TrEMBL record:
Matching InterPro entries: NRho (IPR031976), NRho_sf (IPR038244), Peptidase_S54_rhomboid_dom (IPR022764), Rhomboid-like_sf (IPR035952), Rhomboid_protease_S54 (IPR050925)
Name of the protein this chain belongs to: Rhomboid family intramembrane serine protease
Similarity annotation: Belongs to the peptidase S54 family.
PANTHER family: PRESENILIN-ASSOCIATED RHOMBOID-LIKE PROTEIN, MITOCHONDRIAL (PTHR43731:SF14), RHOMBOID PROTEASE (PTHR43731)
Topology of this chain in the membrane: Multi-pass membrane protein
Taxonomy of the source species: Bacteria, Pseudomonadati, Pseudomonadota, Gammaproteobacteria, Cellvibrionales
Amino acid sequence: MSQWITVYSFPSSKDLSALARFIHRYQLPLRITEEKNQQLLLSPDAGLADMLKPLLQRWDSGELDLDRVQMQRVENGEPISEGPQTTNATIETQRGPEGAMSDGQPKASAFVLPTFPLQKTPISLLLIALCFLGWFLQINNLSSGLLIYPDRSSGALFSQTPFSQSSLAWHIQQGQWWRLFTPAIVHFSLPHALFNALGIWILGRPIEARGGSFLFVVLVLFGAVASNLAQYFWEPRVLFGGMSGVVYALVGFALVVQRFQPQWRDIPTGILTVALVWLLLCALGIMTLLTGVGVANAAHIGGLLSGLFIALVYCALSGARRFVPS
């Protein structure tokens, strides 16, 4: 049986809710008990106790906020993510946008993906489900009512066919306004659905959890319509679908919010950089050359621009304050 040792003792009047959240966030082998008018933090691991003592002293004295502390477990000098029982770890605090710790040392690059209650991200979960529903409908030839029919009258980009005679105009005249959005639901392959669902999970959930579902619905609808229209007017003769345009609207939104609120890092900057590099490779035709698969580049760019625009308006109205880290 493990011998529980005292890591730190606090007065009985000390509020340990932040410490409890810290323990839960990293699934640390710690427990809090009360003995002789004191609150004791116990651990079966002496190494973990030695590592935590300086941190707890600084927190107890009011020097730092545990809710803004990041911890990354390491083994033999290499970061690892598995195993809550690992005792070797690096801990860093986030004091401000300059990335400096309170002791003046440069901040490490450790990052822990945040988690959010499912009830705070209902629209994101719905979009993920719609990605797979759209793929199911497509492979069963049930998606025609969701797509914008391509124009077949011209083989050139920016068809000279008057808009009033275009397939999109025909849809609108028939009252089928939903087609401005629903091509985003349809996916032509399972990998495409998986890729976009992952994008919504990583990008969409942090934005919805922080900004609220109403903002997220506006961003998704605007991004879907903008990306679909951009793709249709760029290549009206080509059938298209997928939620990539919405994902890039989220990329654009996150890029702007992180400029207005530098401390918000629920979405790693590296992921946004990879998304922009991917957009560039696709726009240059490199991915089509390598894979032989057509890419809706105009939808990506239209979605990105729409996300940038909404974020600029949102931040100009002081919305970025909702993205201040807890």
